[in-house]
Amino acid sequence: MFSIFRRKKSGKGIESTQVRPVEKTGADPLEQRLARTRTSLGGLFSLIRGAKAIDEDLIEEIETTLLTADMGITATTRIIDRLREGIKRGIVTEPSEVLPAVQAELYDLIEPCEQFLAVDTEKKPFVILMVGVNGVGKTTTIGKLARRYLDEGKSVMLAAGDTFRAAAVEQLKAWGERNDVPVVAQQSGADTAAVIYDALHSAKARGVDVLIADTAGRLHTQGHLMQELSKVKRVMHKIDPEAPHETMLVVDAGTGQNALAQAREFNQAVSLSGITVTKLDGTARGGVLFAIAAELGIPIRFIGVGETAADLRPFDAGTFVHAILPVGDE
Ligand SMILES: Nc1nc2c(ncn2[C@@H]2O[C@H](COP(=O)(O)OP(=O)(O)O)[C@@H](O)[C@H]2O)c(=O)[nH]1
Ligand SMILES: [Mg+2]
Q1: N or C end of the chain: which has fewer CB within 10 A?
Q2: Out of 62-66, 95-99, 158-162, 164-168, which region has the weakest mean confidence (pLDDT)?
Q3: Sheet containing 300-304: which strands, arranged edge to edge?
Q4: Is 135 close to ligand 1, i.e. is its CB under 6 Å away?
Q5: What domains appear along the chain, each with residue ranges and CATH number?
Q6: pLDDT tens, 248-292?
Q7: Which atom of ligand 1 is nearest to the CA of 134?
Q8: Ligand 1 centroid from CA 147, angstroms
Q9: Residue 18 backbone phi and psi in degrees, to 5
Q10: Which atom of ligand 1 is nearest to the CA of 214?
Q11: Is ligand 1 within 6 A of the CB of residue 114?
């Protein structure tokens, strides 16, 4: 929508179209939470300020900055190629036009991944299966999601499918008690698929709107654990052929290119329908969202920018791009 080329076609030129943020700046704007990633791209501003003309050195320095911000090779190459093309075609002629062009390309790249997770309350329950490696924020995200759906007036049930550690079951149960949300659990060591099967059965009987199932952290290299996820899906199908309605991978932005590798591998093993990227508040590696978008194109459902429920935000491409590269915001 905002690519430099499509803008040219509309005949309006670079300056005429802005990638507009949806979220208004308030007491706690997203920009503050994403300060570190913004800093990692901040060098672009001084590069441009210091540039008298668009030359090869400038383009290479932009490329390095994008790579350093964890955008990855695929995304960076695409942006740089398109920038070069724009220069060749005379669309980008002045240094001052470079950053709006980069911003437009960032937006163009990631906008297709802005696909809000619409919970269909006709499905009772709408089932969300959470997967990912250890410590990325799966259980925390479940709490935040549950809070969101409760606030929307939906009924929620949780399944303590991380039966690996007793503490994991306790963590979910404690959260359920505090928030008056039923949690289906068995003793640690129980079969994850059995726990989730029970939960789905019970959620269906009670007419619950949303069932969110936790699972133990696993590495894609642990073949038997990846197969366990397929089994979870198989047993769900016995009750509801459409469940899970969402298979959501949670990745920690701070792991950079590892998060991309996790997305790739989990997608191959269990076919993801969405991704939540957590801990964007504490890292300069937020560029990894573009790496995921460029390589996999999986919907980015939410971003985690802190530890409270309000810190789980639906992914909004315009707001995100502006928060990390505030061009045209003055
Ligand atoms: N700063 C920050 N911390 C987070 C975020 N999401 C999760 N965490 C923290 O990450 C840690 C691991 O989370 P947990 O949900 O237990 O991970 P799990 O092993 O995937 O279930 C906890 O200390 C969470 O508070 C986030 O968006 N920002
Ligand atoms: Mg957990």
Answers
A1: C
A2: 164-168
A3: 183-184, 156-159, 210-213, 126-131, 246-252, 274-278, 300-304, 312-314
A4: yes
A5: 4-19+28-113 (1.20.120.140), 126-324 (3.40.50.300)
A6: 999 999 999 999 999 999 999 999 999 999 999 999 999 999 999
A7: 19
A8: 16
A9: -115, 150
A10: 21
A11: no
